[in-house]
Each structure stands twice: as structure tokens, then as C-alpha cells.
Specification:
Length: 435
């Protein structure tokens, strides 16, 4: 479990999030990264325990709170967000492919005249590699994970050495963000929270196979936290080091491919980035396939994996249409924070507070059973989620939160409270009707 969750964050997206946080400055970025990641992965441990206790995937667990049919909502949201993460890692890796084509064949880089051709070829190449990686189902995914994690560790150590040969730690800590590009602390907290909470809804998918409580709770927390702190730190210092060396800070150049090129790491670094995309996307594809299978139980896992691989290829082209990967990435994180936070709160409140850490697992698939509610849907959970998502959008308009602690965790707290009290009101009305 520890290795699995370190591997989940040992990817291109984590480097990129570190580069994005450079807009806060070194010290504030580290504080935000530690605070937001630690709190996010507490939720990972809580969901991990539910998986251990029930032996059911996260989306299967959501049937208890949202209803058997109502669980289609969190499943579809989970499906879309892991499609999105697959696209994020694919786009970054495709950038590496375009750099390879530039170095080997002289093709223009993306962002320059004629550079679209290299990116299109890169996306196609990465999509083919992803399809090959999932062709044998979970066994090939395990193989990709084992090989990829070794390569990515070597690359990160190599990049760290190169960075500190280029600039000193004192220079990095003293670097000042240009005022017009500075990111507020609250926005940074929300950005990191959205990045980390994306893994929470996949927690039970893995911990349901664990034999010990500590393997389902402590190990995912420590592994995910270690992975995100280490790899985001590398992205952070690499981005700042380039800004210091070049005298120009551009948050759009925070992706690992651009960083590797500017640091002079060579072709081998680009190849490793491509391979690590496959490592990260092995988890993303598996989680998306699992969510799709909850909505369409007759689909085999392999069929689900093929569907998500093809859809993620199409989604990867969105940043090219928008003209900015950073713009698309931040918008995607805002979407995750808005829709996932309330779902996670509802699941956790339902299990720990309303059901006292116990579910009747056999009823999770039974029509007219304990978790059928009204025609298979718990409308209280749906309504609480809608309120939570709307509240997230409204709270984002408050400058005081954007400049302090952000809105994500406040929104999650309020969403959980709303669900708890609305369910309590509903149960009291039922008892009165019976009496």
C-alpha cells in the first residue's frame, strides 16, 4: 500500500503542480503543500478504512449513502475526473514526445509555427502506449507500475542533483514572484486540495484487498503524502531554478518536459517522462474503469479500460483547443474541488457518524433493500451534494477565503453537516409516521 500510493503521486502531474505552486514563492508553497496535502490524505485514510472494513470499492461504498442508483452520480463524476487526469498526464508526456521529435527530426516545438503536428503525433503515440499497457488488464498494469516507479525515482534524484548544481537553496528561498503572477494562499490551498482529493475517491478500490487495518489507513496516508511532498518539491525547485537562471518566470513552462529541456537533461529524461506517464495513468485508467463498471455492471474490467483509454485520448486535445494547458489544468482542478469535496464528505459522514462504522454489505446490491431509499436514490444525498457544489462556487467569490485558507475544506465541512442534519430530519419524520 505504501508503494502503491507513493507511485500514485510519482508522476508528471505532481511535478507540474509543484511548478504551479512556484507562483506562491518557495516558503509559502511548502506551507500550503504540507497543510493541504496532510488534511486531504486524512480523508484518504478514512475512505481506506471503509474499503478494508467492507471489502467494497469506493463507488460501491457510495451506494450506502447515495442509494444503489444514486451512486451513479459519484461514479460518473469519478469517471470524468480520472479521464481528466489521464488526459493531463498524456498531454505532458506528449509534450516530451514533441521535444524528442524536435531533437531527432527537427520538428517545431509546440507553441511555435508548425508545432501542433508534433503534439498530435505525441498524443497518438501516448494513447497507443496506454492501450498496449492495459491490453492484459490488471496484470499489465501491475508490470507497468513496478518498472515505472523505479525509473521515476532515478529521474527525480537526477533532476534534483542538476537543479542544485545550477542554483543554491538560498537563491531558491530568496527568489521573489513577480507581483502580477503571484498566487494567493487560499487559491493555492484549493489547488493542492483538488489535486489530492482526486485520489481519495479511489482509496477503497485498493484498500479493500488489505489484510490489516494499518495497511488500509496509515500506509496510504504516509505513501501518498511522501509522494506528493517529494515530487511536488522537485517541480517547485526546478521551476524556480529556471526562473532564476533565465531571469524570466512563466507558469506555463512548469511541465516536466520543458523543465527537463531547459535543465539540459537530454533525451533520456524525456523518455523517462513518457514512461512515467504510463505509470501514473495505469492507476487513473483502473480507477476510471472501476467507476464505469459500477454504472454498467455487465461491462468487464478490460472493456471498461478500453473505453476510458479511448475517451481520454479525445479529452487530451482540449488544452490545444483552448490554447493553454495551464488554463485547462486550473479549470479542471476547480471542477474537481467543486464536485468531489461534497461527495467525499457525504460518504464519510454516512459511514462514521450515521452508521457507526458498519454497513450491511449484502444490501449494497439488493433492490428494495436497506440502501434502496426512493426508487434506488437517496435524494437527501443528491440535494446535499448540489448545495455543496453551489456553495463552493459562491464561497470562491469571497476574497477573504481566497487570500487565507481557501474554500475546499470549509465547503466539505458544511456539506457533511447539511447531509447529517437533513438525514436526521428525514428519519424523525419516518418514526412519527410509524407512531
Amino acid at each position: 500500500m505504501f508503494a502503491t500510493w507513493v507511485g500514485a503521486n510519482a508522476n508528471n502531474g505532481t511535478w507540474y503542480i509543484g511548478g504551479v505552486l512556484a507562483a506562491c514563492g518557495f516558503v509559502l508553497a511548502l506551507k500550503v503543500l504540507l497543510f493541504s496535502s496532510t488534511l486531504s490524505y486524512v480523508f484518504l485514510s478514512l475512505v481506506g478504512f471503509i474499503g478494508y472494513k467492507t471489502g467494497v470499492s469506493t463507488m460501491g461504498i457510495s451506494r450506502a449513502s447515495f442509494g444503489i442508483r444514486g451512486s451513479y452520480l459519484p461514479s460518473l463524476i469519478n469517471f470524468t475526473q480520472f479521464i481528466g487526469w489521464t488526459a493531463v498526464n498524456t498531454f505532458i508526456a506528449a509534450t516530451s514526445v514533441s521535444y524528442l521529435l524536435h531533437d531527432l527530426l527537427g520538428w517545431p516545438l509546440y507553441g511555435h509555427a508548425g508545432g501542433v503536428k508534433g503534439m498530435v503525433v505525441g498524443i497518438i503515440v501516448m494513447s497507443i502506449l496506454h492501450i498496449i499497457s492495459i491490453s492484459s488488464g490488471s496484470r499489465s498494469i501491475q508490470l507497468i507500475e513496478r518498472i515505472g516507479i523505479i525509473l521515476v525515482f532515478i529521474f527525480v534524484l537526477w533532476e534534483s542533483i542538476v537543479v542544485f548544481r545550477t542554483v543554491s537553496l538560498h537563491q531558491i528561498t530568496a527568489w521573489q514572484v513577480p507581483a502580477h503572477l503571484k498566487m494567493n494562499s487560499g487559491v493555492a490551498v484549493d489547488t493542492v486540495a483538488a489535486f489530492n482529493l482526486a485520489w481519495v475517491t479511489a482509496g477503497a478500490d485498493f484498500t479493500r484487498f488489505t489484510a490489516k487495518k494499518s495497511s488500509a489507513t496509515i500506509m496510504p496516508f504516509l505513501g501518498a503524502l511522501f509522494g506528493v511532498l517529494w515530487f511536488a518539491f522537485i517541480g517547485l525547485i526546478a521551476t524556480i531554478s529556471i526562473a532564476i537562471a533565465s531571469g524570466v518566470y512563466d507558469p506555463n513552462n512548469s511541465d516536466p518536459s520543458t523543465i527537463a529541456s531547459k535543465l539540459g537533461l537530454g533525451l533520456l529524461a524525456l523518455i523517462v517522462i513518457i514512461l512515467t506517464s504510463m505509470t501514473a495513468n495505469a492507476v487513473n485508467l483502473l480507477a476510471a474503469g472501476s467507476a464505469l463498471s459500477n454504472v454498467f455492471p455487465k461491462l468487464s474490467l478490460k472493456t471498461s479500460l478500453w473505453i476510458v483509454a479511448i475517451l481520454s485520448t479525445l479529452v487530451t486535445f482540449i488544452p490545444m483547443i483552448l490554447g493553454s494547458f495551464l488554463t485547462a489544468f486550473i479549470a479542471f482542478l476547480d471542477y474537481i474541488g467543486m464536485v468531489l469535496g461534497p461527495i467525499i464528505s457525504i460518504i464519510i459522514v454516512d459511514f462514521y457518524l450515521r452508521n457507526k462504522k458498519s454497513y450491511r454489505v449484502s444490501d449494497l446490491t439488493v433492490k428494495n433493500g436497506r440502501y434502496w431509499y426512493s426508487h434506488g436514490i437517496n435524494w437527501v444525498a443528491i440535494f446535499s451534494w448540489i448545495l455543496g457544489a453551489a456553495l463552493f462556487f459562491l464561497l470562491r467569490q469571497l476574497e477573504v477565503l481566497n487570500t487565507t485558507i481557501g474554500v475546499t475544506f470549509i465547503d466539505m465541512l458544511i456539506s457533511g453537516i447539511i447531509y447529517y442534519f437533513l438525514m436526521g430530519i428525514g428519519e424523525r419524520k419516518k418514526r412519527q409516521n410509524v407512531n
